[in-house]
Every structure is written in C-alpha cells, then in structure tokens.
Amino acid sequence: MYETIILGAGPAGVAAGVYAARKKMKALLITENFGGQSVVSVEIHNWIGTKAISGVDLAKNLEEHLRSQESIEIRAGERIAKVEKTGDNFKVITNFGVYETKTVIVTSGARRRKLNVSGEKELAGKGVAYCATCDAPLFRGKAVAVVGSGNAGLEAVMDLLPYAKEIYILSKGETINGDPVTLEKIKRAENFKAVIFNASIKEIFGDNFVSGLKYCDLKSNEEKILPVQGVFVEIGSVPNSEPLSDLVKINERGEIVIDHKTGATSAPGIFAAGDIVDSAYKQSNIAAGDAIKAALSAYSYLQWK
C-alpha cells in the first residue's frame, strides 16, 4: 500500500514526486514517458532558471532529478487505465498491473488536438508547434499560419505579433469565434495579413522544416498553397481525465475541478495539478508550482487521516 501514487511525469508530476520524496512518503510515480507536452518544443525560453533548453533535454533533466530521489518508486512505460475507490483508499489500474494507495496526485496533463494531416507528425518541432507562448520567439522574421479561430488561436497570434514577419489565421468556418476586442487589436498590426475562412487543412509540407501548407477552400472546393515556415495548431486540447471520470468532478471541457488553494478535488484523497485541471493558464512553471501544492496537501491529508 502506497501513501501516494502520482500519475504523469511532466513538470507537474516530477515536482510532485520530488516533494513527496522529500517528505519521505511511500510514493510511486507512474508514467508513459517523461517530459509531458514540453517534449515537442525545439527550444524553451521560459523555464525558470534556464536561458534556453530543448524539450528533449528538459525531459531528461526532469527524469534525472526524480531518479536522484531515494524515497520514490518509478514505473515508466505504463498507461493509466482506471482509478477506483476501495473503501477509504484507491486502486490504480494500468496496462501492467494494479496498485493500491491512500492518496492519488493526478498530473497526467492533456493531449493537444491534432489536425491529423500528412506532414503534421513528421514536422512536429520542425515548424509545426502547439504552444505559441513557448515557441513564438523561434519564429522571428518568418511567415506563420495559425490554425484555429477561437480564443486560443487569437492568443497565439498575439504571442506571435512581436516576432513573425507575416501571420495568417486559418478558420474552417466562416466566422471568428474568439474575443472581438483581441481580434481588432490583431487586425491593426502590420504583420497580420489575413483571415482565411472555409479552410480545411490537407497537408503540411517541407523537407527538414515546414515550408508551406495545403488547404481546401470549402466553398470553391479548390486546393490552395500557403507558403509559411511555421504552423501553430490551436484547435484546443483534451485533458487526460477519463480514468477518473467516475470519481472526481469534471467540467464541460473535461478538466478536473480543484480547490486552487490546495489542489484537492471533489474526492477526498485525490489531488490534481497541471494541464488536467481547471486552471486559467497552461504553463509548465505554473503546473510545477501547483503540483508542489498538491503534494504538500496530500502529505497533510495523511497526517489527519
């Protein structure tokens, strides 16, 4: 019986793991891989304490830091299938086994919605990006397409305006669904070129780096090419909350609802942090800090249990 099981090993999961280990909790961390969504970033400039680091190197650093702790067990390469309540405790079921614990810290993050078109996977981190806040500075002086016309898409454009030479928004529909005030600010920028409506992305292409995308005009049924060096996919994300859907309160976006003072969920003994929760900002530094809060709350919970 573990005192806590941590689900996930991005910045949030590793932060929770380090603090659980420092508190000498009998802890287990389960993850498919290390690094979370940051792994796809070519270069990260806003990870506090580091001027610049690749997503791959950040994942290595996180893993090394966690493995240097004495009081935590790690099971990498395992996928969470279900979390169940058993009396006052919990059972975590993976594709490899079943583990029992007194508390659970959920940091399994979210998965970005993908376009699922040719070239997207191959060019991820080579011009295809999913976080403008993280990667906008890498596109200084380049032409960039933002796919998505909701608030996420508009915020991505705002992040890109100080850097990109040309910016295009591609919308599958005929309207912009994001904040109209933000849209007006964008339209006044010299480097914002156009909103392309009725655009269904068919392909992202390039040899070693993105050089353009192909889209179909849904009105004319004509295929067109847009030469760009960057494609930001901003069509939302899906929290990995399905294994806990029967236990904790989840909002309409699939995020776990928490008490932001403690990281506690609606189920006593389950805590959560990172991109899987109903936080306003999805950033690695925030996720790590909130996960520390969740780990300390889990420790305090056990003292009173």
Automatic annotation (TrEMBL):
<dbReference type="InterPro" id="IPR008255">
    <property type="entry name" value="Pyr_nucl-diS_OxRdtase_2_AS"/>
</dbReference>
<dbReference type="GO" id="GO:0016668">
    <property type="term" value="F:oxidoreductase activity, acting on a sulfur group of donors, NAD(P) as acceptor"/>
</dbReference>
<keyword id="KW-0560">Oxidoreductase</keyword>
<protein>
    <recommendedName>
        <fullName>FAD/NAD(P)-binding domain-containing protein</fullName>
    </recommendedName>
</protein>
<dbReference type="InterPro" id="IPR023753">
    <property type="entry name" value="FAD/NAD-binding_dom"/>
</dbReference>
<dbReference type="InterPro" id="IPR050097">
    <property type="entry name" value="Ferredoxin-NADP_redctase_2"/>
</dbReference>
<dbReference type="Pfam" id="PF07992">
    <property type="entry name" value="Pyr_redox_2"/>
</dbReference>
<keyword id="KW-0274">FAD</keyword>
<dbReference type="InterPro" id="IPR036188">
    <property type="entry name" value="FAD/NAD-bd_sf"/>
</dbReference>
<feature type="domain" description="FAD/NAD(P)-binding">
    <location>
        <begin position="3"/>
        <end position="288"/>
    </location>
</feature>
<keyword id="KW-0285">Flavoprotein</keyword>
<keyword id="KW-1015">Disulfide bond</keyword>
<keyword id="KW-0676">Redox-active center</keyword>
